[in-house]
Amino acid sequence: MPSEFELIGRYFARPTPSADLGVGDDAALLRLAAGHQCVVSTDMLVEGTHFVAGTDPRRLGWKTIAVSISDLAAMAARPRWATLAVSLPDADDAWLEGFAGGVHACCEAHGVELVGGDTTRGPRNLCATVFGEVPTGQAVTRAGARDGDDIWISGQPGRAALALARLLDGTSADGTLPAEFVEALEAPRPRLALGLALRGLASAMLDVSDGLLGDLAHILECSGVGARLVDGWLPLRALVDCGVDPQRAREALLGGGDDYELLFCAPVAARSRVASVGASVDTPLHRIGTVLAEAGRLELALDDGRCRPLQPIGFRHFTGDKIDN
Ligand code: ADP
Ligand code: MG
To answer: Which residue's alpha carbon is at the smallest distance from atom 17 of ligand 1?
Structure first.
């Protein structure tokens, strides 16, 4: 059985030209560009909670890094470095080869260098911290949404939840889901180019990890506002066109997590600029509603002009709550 130092050397240590000191000492040394703030995010993936045993290790490696890069994208920050803490039940070479390959591929694809971590034996548990930078004062937080702002969502939320449901119940209730659905779940693409391009345009932003409504509720709470979503504006068609029942598609879109799309608000005056940003980074953007002045109000406008309240519940680890809308 190799020592953890052999594993680190073989699988994780890589050149880190942009760090003053990378893997191999007690700590890494990083230097921020002048006039920038350091932006940091950590995410943990636990076997049995965030992924099922037997998940493709390369995709898991990709996702371990991708979810934290997504957090930095949601702050309109540029990711630069990562650390990686892994607890592994054994030193399976094939698994490590795949996992480390996914980690390095995701780092390289987003300009990130792996500068340190921790390697220990135990239940499979994967935790990355990504460090990045943003010009001082220009990060986009959850707190800036204002009455009348447009609410936007990128890409196609709902695919990961539908893929997960099929994986867990093993049914083919949704027919043959396209490969992109499983990819959205197992190897999400952080919307980094979009997040960076929205700097100065978005008033509030986050990445959807626990479900669109639950995460929207975080923006509403931090900003002290409410929201009206418009049923007819929700990007349901692509899901329904793949054979998903319309009600199930709506539930996956509003309540499903793990797609790592960006949910953001922007002033009406910025609408055409937002649309051009979407086109310039080749990411579909959907305007799905409006920010309301009334704090905590969350409703869905139906085609017949009526509005009904929505429950802002996403996935919660300790209560297991999941309320249908
Ligand atoms: P220490 O005992 O000083 O905490 P470790 O023995 O845990 O150091 O790690 C040795 C070096 O390898 C450190 O620079 C650490 O950051 C790095 N490292 C450990 N595990 C990983 C990993 N999974 N990925 C990247 N670097 C790692
Ligand atoms: Mg030490």
So the answer is: 116
